[in-house]
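In response to reviewer comment 3 from the previous cycle, which asked for concrete evidence that the modeling workflow produces usable outputs, we include below a single protein chain processed end to end. The sequence was submitted unchanged, and the resulting structure tokens are shown without manual editing.
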Amino acid sequence: MEYIEIDEPKAGDTVVVGLSGGVDSTLTAVLLKERGCRVIGVTMSLWKGDLPPLPDGKTLKSSCYGPDETEDIAQCEKFCAEHGIEYHVIDVKDEYQKQVLDYFKAEYRAGRTPNPCVRCNSFIKFGALLRGVQNMGIDFDYFCTGHYARTVRPIEGVWGSDKKPVMIACASDVTKDQAYFLYRISSETLEKVRFPLGLTAKKDVFKMAKERGLVAASREESQDFIPPEYFEYLFSDKPGIPGDIIDLDGHVLGRHRGIEHYTIGQRRGLGVSSTKPLYVHSIDAKKNLVVLANNDDLLCAGLIADDFVWPAGVAPTEPFDALVKIRLASRPVACHVEPYEPQADETCAGKAYRITFSEPQRAVAPGQSAVLYRDGVICGGGIIMRACMDAR
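The workflow returned the following structure tokens.
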């Protein structure tokens, strides 16, 4: 399919920019200001002040959710004041608790591996935050962020329809591409979304920021979500249920302290002695089991996914070939996608699909996202239900 780049904000447009205080979002705001846009900065307030100090005097590296939010907001206020940019803080704490933190805990306790960043983008950054802006009576032409991605429009309708929605495309800097995280944003929302850094390399972003004297150019890059040190606290509201750690033959190798502490592909922290490396192969939430195996046993021929989102809500009617990523860090692999009929004991969120890889993929984790690409553009994606060890 062929696509065209869509119009970017121009002089005179009112543009709301999501500001985190980092180099990407602050440079985005400055570039739009230089272009002659009326720029309004907004930051979402997530922090409820409910995490204790880190043990042993450790310091917290900047993260999405943490006590350094106050410092980030102060830096954003200072930046906007220096550049003549209107600035607002939007309170989305309750929605974030419900849609991200509670979801994160529930998924791990169900033996799945959630992706809070995907969830946050669809429900919070491009959901609750924009509703907060609209509730303030702010009328805007575009919403821009510092994400490394692009927006395009197909020349022909998607999946044989007459609809030509805005779609997410990969950034030119493949080492920083964030399109995977954005796949669940609705086509309606994307009509007003733009990513001004989508064609810019990260090294050039730092160069441009330093040329403009932006303080953020010297700030440490933030990490996503929360640091591992806080995981224990997040799950302290309910004690874990210990159970057996077994191998593929059912032999008991040890005891786990609750399935929420494990994820597919994990090697460290298993508490099992072995003469060879063992990895988490699967998690049986119903039986409260963690299953370990050799590295080669983690290779999968495909997966079943449900809860799909498609551009403009138009789902494919026939099987098709594409590229798929099963996690952000994985490389795209060729695959075949076809509708899947659930088995008698399976319950799906919407229509499910079977994705068969052209070559085996390691550690397919239920709860993660399987994102589909054609010609560098996201054509759909869903949540992994289970791995398929064999082709059929």
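Residues 116-135 form the longest helix (20 residues). We consider this sufficient to address the reviewer's concern, and the full set will be provided in the supplementary archive.
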